[in-house]
Amino acid sequence: MEKTIEAAFFKAFELGGIVDLSIDYVQRKYDWGYKHDRNSSRHPLNEAGEKFYNVELPNIIKAGFEAFDSSVVYSVTSPLIDEIENNLLECKTDVERDKYIYSLITPFARLSGIIHPTAEIERLTARISENEKAAEMWSKANPDEQLKNTAGEAAGTPREQIKACNREIDRLKWQVERTKEISSQFVNLLCSNQINELWTESGTVEHCLSAMLSTMGTYSNRLFAMLIQHGINLKEYQKTAGVYLKKWWSVTDIAYYIGSMELAQHYLDGIKNDEQPTEATPPTAQHKTNGKRGRPTKPFKDIMLNDEGGANLIKMHNVLNGKKGKDFVLIIVACMKKGWITKPTYTQAKNEFGDIGSKQIFSKYLSNQYAFTQTEIEGAINSLN
Question: What would the DSSP string read from start to end of 310-323?
Answer without folding.
Answer: -HHHHHHHHHHTT-
